[in-house]
Every structure is written in C-alpha cells, then in structure tokens.
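Hey L., structure's done. Input below.
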Amino acid sequence: MTNTTAQYRTEGDNSIYAQPDGQVIPVVTHAGDEDTNTAQSGDCVRVSGVSIQHTPATKLWFGQVSNTPGYRSLPHHHGEAETGGYVLRGHGRIYYGENYQQFQDMRAGDWVFVPPFMPHVEANMSVTEELVWLTARTPENIVVNLEDVDDVILADYRRA
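Output:
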C-alpha cells in the first residue's frame, strides 16, 4: 500500500459510500445502464450517469442532455443547484432575462455555467442536427418548470 492511499483513508470518513460488504470503491455506470427517470423540461431530455438515483453520490448530478433538431426546453430553473455544461455537438442557445430576450450561443467545445434560480430556456438552434451536452449539477438534478412561452419571443428560434 502506498503512502498516498494511507493518507486518503485517514483524511475523512467516506463510509456513507460503502458497498454492502463495507468496501468503498469507484462506481461505474455502464453505457445503457444510465438512469432515464430524471426530471425533464419539455423537449430537453436528461439522462443521468452519476446521481443519487443509482450511485452512492449525494452531492452531484452528472449526465447528458440532448435536444432533437429544432426543439427546446420549457422555461425552467434549477433551484439552488449550480449548473455547468460542456457542449459535445450541435448549436445550442440559452435564453434568459426579461421575456427571455437575452441569450448566449454555445457550440461544440464550449462550456456554460447557469447560476442557481435563473429562469432560462435551452434550445437547439439547428433543425437538422441534434444538440448534445454534458451537464454537472450540485447538489442534484433539480428542475423547476415554469409557464411556457410562445416560440416567437425567442430570437431566431424555429422548430423543425
């Protein structure tokens, strides 16, 4: 056993993550075993890879979010959760502010942070390509859906 391992074990109590046999081990969610029973928001689909629903995680939600071509989420916010995202593919837009008149565009390779309690709409700006991103949220996948808005108030947005 290395000194690093010994230090890790004495730095804190991680027994809440123990398996039934008492061992604390990494937990892998294999492709196809993700949790799909997650909070959704309109046409925005969230799939969990790491969450309280199927891993020992208690303070983190990490998953994939996707919008099919020309579709968007309902207006929503994530309560107390801080949200970070990384765009894998596609062209997305986050609308926010009064009547969702402000927006930020995102493309593959871009990172985004959405503060807690900020109402927003996530839209796929392409009518031919899927928008896919990874999202981390702490403490959990909180989704508070708000009253829907007409597509026409969202600058340049169009459905497939």
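The chain has a mean pLDDT of 88. The longest helix spans residues 3-11.

-- N.
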